[in-house]
Design brief:
heterodimer, A: 2 domains, five-stranded antiparallel beta sheet, B: five-stranded antiparallel beta sheet, five-stranded mixed beta sheet
């Protein structure tokens, strides 16, 4: 699908941020239906309270259904948290802005956590590269938060050829941009965002599991909606029973909603957009 | 016809195995992954089938190419699957090597060739390959 041989990687892992070694496992593959049940739905019978009127049997919420809820929860989490959970290779255009350019070619990528810059070029609308910035000059120290810089202070090699720091073939090309203040869609950046290999931080898995569990409990609770109280009286004797009806999982759902909200804030603080400012 | 697959664990013969939601192992471990081809358009979960999907036996001489997908070319695995049991053509096996670099969560993509008919299938997030390290 994509070649990462010459990509500029970020500094350390995206989670724990910038980590290069850790003794505690904090990333794992995507949550499975079994883990969803044990972590979020412990003790909840995944069976409808109502019987199917055609078969006379209660419907079972199968692992296939849970897997589908998990897939849906991943998409929802990506939208709500404004991050990519699974790796996505992107191509993004950015304007030339003299103020940002004078700040070592400051770019803010629109998708996070970015893990590699695969190509940074000047590419007009005909998609023919006018100039490809050597990856040796692309700084990826702040990549996980979406920041990229061009720092042409070191020598660079492109296809085995030495590119000096300041010459007509290298950084000097970039200097001619000083004549213009702003050019739309000047830069083209190919980069990859999302957690590498789909190894998801445990806290993100908790978020996905919480979203999926809310959907599961909501569906199950509906099947308790038929009757939440009944009474029986014979002569002088009577008995009445009240049940929570469709509110049966309300306490657990409220807890999950609160947990989801707290995790949303924490995860957005790490990778999301809380404050944005520009020079225009 | 919607080609898909369900994973099998603890496979001894065509009558002795367990269904699994996903294929799980640790990165760097050699693993034999067994799965059963199904037609996911039939016997759906909503109709009360557990597991869902009807077992599919391809025509004799069929070949199956599996791809364990990764965005990174150097990690993606493309391999031919084999039929370990002559008396059940729905069960297939693919061997993963200790040198394979795949890890994390990965899709299983299927390409079944039966004569001139080629069918494609996908098992979303079918592989959960745990990391050898903590990162």
């Amino acid at each position: 699908m994509a070649d990462y041989t010459n990509s500029r990687k970020g500094s350390g892992a995206p989670y724990p941020e910038n980590a290069i070694e850790t003794a505690r496992q904090q990333v794992e593959p995507l949550i499975t239906p079994d883990l969803l049940k044990s972590r979020h739905l412990f003790g909840v019978p995944l069976v409808s309270a109502m019987k199917d009127p055609l078969t006379g049997k209660q419907q079972v919420m199968t692992d296939d259904m849970l897997a589908d809820y998990i897939e849906g929860a991943v998409s929802q989490a990506e939208l709500e948290l404004k991050i990519d959970i699974f790796p996505v290779k992107r191509q993004e255009k950015q304007p030339f802005d003299i103020n940002l350019y004078n700040s070592f070619g400051y770019f803010q990528l629109s998708h996070r956590p970015a893990t590699s810059v695969d190509k940074l070029s000047v590419t007009p609308s005909n998609q023919m590269d006018v100039y490809v910035v050597p990856n040796d000059w692309v700084e990826g120290a702040y990549l996980h938060r979406g920041q990229v810089n061009i720092v042409p202070l070191t020598v660079a090699f492109v296809q085995g050829t030495y590119i000096p720091q300041q010459s007509s073939g290298g950084a000097a090309f970039l200097q001619i941009l000083g004549n213009k203040a702003w050019i739309p869609a000047w830069w083209q950046i190919e980069y990859t965002s999302g957690f590498p290999d789909g190894m998801v931080p445990r806290v993100v898995n908790d978020y996905v599991g919480t979203v999926a569990a809310l959907e599961v409990l909501s569906q199950l609770a509906l099947t308790y909606a038929r009757s939440n109280s009944h009474s029986l009286g014979i002569d002088g004797l009577s008995q009445s029973v009240s049940t929570p009806g469709p509110q049966i999982f309300k306490v657990r759902m409220d807890e999950l909603e609160a947990k989801k909200l707290a995790l949303t804030k924490k995860l957005k603080a790490i990778y999301g957009f809380k404050i944005f400012s520009g020079t225009l | 016809m919607l080609l898909s697959a369900r994973f099998l664990n603890d496979v001894a013969n065509v009558n002795s195995f367990e269904y699994a939601d996903v294929a799980e192992f640790t990165e760097g471990d050699p693993a034999s992954i067994y799965f059963q081809l199904i037609d996911a358009s039939l016997d759906k979960a909503g109709e009360g089938f557990v597991p869902s999907g009807r077992r599919y036996v391809p025509a004799s001489g069929a070949t199956l190419q599996v791809t364990i997908e990764s965005l990174d070319d150097s990690k993606e695995i493309v391999r031919s699957a084999t039929q370990p049991f002559a008396n059940d053509g729905s069960i297939w096996k693919v061997d993963l090597l200790a040198t394979d670099k795949i890890r994390g969560t990965a899709n299983l993509r299927l390409k079944l060739t039966e004569g001139s008919v080629v069918r494609s299938g996908l098992v979303k997030s079918g592989f959960r390959i745990h990391s050898l390290t903590c990162l």
